[in-house]
Amino acid sequence: MQKGNIGVTTENIFPVIKKFLYSDHEIFLRELVSNAVDATQKLKTLSSIGEFKGEVGDLTVHVSLGKDTITVSDHGIGLTAEEIDKYINQIAFSGANDFLEKYKNDANAIIGHFGLGFYSAFMVAKKVEIITKSYREGAQAVKWTCDGSPEFTIEDTDKAERGTDIVLYIDDDCKEFLEEARISSLLKKYCSFLPIPVAFGKKKEWKDGKQVETAEDNIINDSNPLWTLKPSELKDEDYKKFYRDLYPMSDEPLFWIHLNVDYPFHLTGILYFPKVKSNIELNKNKIQLYCNQVYVTDSVEGIVPDFLTLLHGVLDSPDIPLNVSRSYLQSDANVKKISTYITKKVSDRLQSIFKNDRKQFEEKWNDLKIFINYGMLTQEDFYDRAKDFALFTDTDSKYYTFEEYKTLIKDNQTDKDGNLIYLYANNLDEQYTYIDAAKNKGYNVLLMDGQLDVPMINMLLLRYRIVIITFEVLLVHSLPYVKKSFILVQILLFLFCVLLYSTAVKFVLASVLPSSVYSILPTISPSLTGAYKKLSAYTVLATFSFLANGTTIFLPFVPVTLIFSSSPPAHGISR
Fold this sequence. Notes:
By secondary structure, this protein is an alpha+beta fold.
């Protein structure tokens, strides 16, 4: 038996584990299982090239619970005593500073790296044992033991089969990890798509009114997930089923994008466009990030553009640094390339649907526009692509691209200087009077009732050189006679409505006017407020071209907003 005493203190080791590796204790299970999978894959590789000539046999990785222990077992390449000393002792016990300096360039390879990920076990264990036997012919099985102090032991032991068993003696303050339900949920979270079968206990079935174990292993993962397959091999139902497996409570996705890149970076995955119900924030962070089929996180800000965090699905790439800060991610060359690529693929897919099946695109526009508007507001390169397929919707539920709508209104909705005039409403029911008045004048009214329609309007105002002037500003800067005339008209109109609908006036009118004339009053509106709104709408519509001076006019009593726009600038946003 070999004993060792390392010339460092425990304090030097565990800050490294908690800071450089992971602060979340549950990560230990992902690390140990992915290490086991890595060792198994290496054996398969050695067998395929003829360096291992024995029987490969069953390669399933097993996770099991004891009274006070968790054991992760594999039938991979195993380790010799020398390899344990190299990959466990010399790497991790070399002192915190040397450790960080030596492996600072390998941060994106921690997952699957035995010596690094292995020490996450000490987050939850008071003692760890490695019982292992190398695949090499004539290898001696060995047992390594450490309680997290600078001391360890390595001794010969008996083990019939090649491979490695990692035995964790769980600390008293981490007993939750001895619960079957807890381990099952963690395996499902982190290991659902590992490329080697992973078993946790045995399958159970109902028998005599209770659940009993069968002899069959309970495999918890799909070792060939959909994103690893060729799109040509898959049908629409395959993509829909995979989506249901990922998000059991969600509606069917609108459509999806299958990603597969080998150069200049490695990236695979499937992104789904979901139906976004209401609150944007509640629908973020549904993209799952994997590294070689090992789950990493569902927080992908900095890896994909912000507007694409509304999408659902999976991304798998070994080229994304996993254990570094968000600020570092934003400056990483591979991350920038991946972000640009994903943006392009999304815009190409949207453009393709718009071009090849516009009817389908329009039918899904109300669900799609939140993604497209969000992208146009936050991503300059996406705006440049999306402006050709982004749509306006009018109050008659007709759809137009930006250019199509300009063509539609250019002959009828212009001011005295030839500037186009856009009218929009944001509530069909409440603003029906104004919409109807505008349509009776021959004008088209856009419907802007989406979550991001107001920010979109503001963005278009900037890009199309439009100035926003509120009602108060209009009163200050309008020509004096326009200001006074407009206010006077509104005051007289309101007084007229008050008189018209007062009980006394109604009585007088009913007594002196012919019934045929008096009966016209209810056709204006059954109420004072309704009459004022309707007459006010007609008044504004009758005078807006006189007031138009290349500005947007917001009037507090006129919900239909008038946008007076000029031609877009030749390059970029006008400042």
